[in-house]
Amino acid sequence: MFEKPIVMIDFETTGMSPANGDRITEVAALRITGGRVVERFVSLVNCQVRVPSYITALTGITQSMVNAAPPASLVVPELLRFIGTDALSAHNASFDERFLLAESRNLGLMPAHDSLICSLKLSRRLFPGLASYKLASLSAALGIRFRSAAHRAEADAEVTAQVLLHIGAHLRNTYGIAQVEPQLLGRLNRLSAVKARDFLNKEFG
């Protein structure tokens, strides 16, 4: 389905922005090859910060869990090696990439992923008219179920991977694209919804 591997990533964090001092508490990265997840990297992360109570209520990740986790200085380099130069994807991808860049820079490192693909933007362009594109609502609309609790990195990454595979199947079945290149998904990300449909109809319709 996908011509080249794509790594789906999801972070749980202490807040919304690394610029405000927020840090990662958990990461999941799933490598999609062809039409399935073939490899995964999952870890809690100790960034030596306080986990707000509302984050614990949302995710179930407690201070004691984070305190017992491996430090970012070990997890982040392993994560970057796992991603390598493959394309990177996430739901609301700019959020996760900001944290990936911030945590990498804290260690004097730089991610090497080939490109960034946002499943949220793709869904808005390819499945217009849905009531919501938040992951829980989108996955329900597409008939994709969470196998475990939402707002944990692996569960969210797993569901988002299934959303991306659903997008690949939609492109194959609607436009006859047998193997989808990450560059095509990136290009669709940058187009408006109307222009994305016009582009696909012109190129593959």
Please describe what this structure looks like.
The chain has 205 residues and is of the alpha/beta class. The chain has a single domain (2-204), classed as Ribonuclease H-like superfamily/Ribonuclease H (Nucleotidyltransferase, domain 5). The protein is 47% helix and 19% strand. The protein is built from nine helices and five strands, in the order E-E-E-H-H-H-E-H-E-H-H-H-H-H. It has a five-stranded mixed sheet with strand order 3-2-1-4-5, with helices on both faces. Helix 5 packs parallel to helix 7. The longest helix is centred in the last third of the chain and has 23 residues, at 153-175. The chain is globular and about 55 Å long.
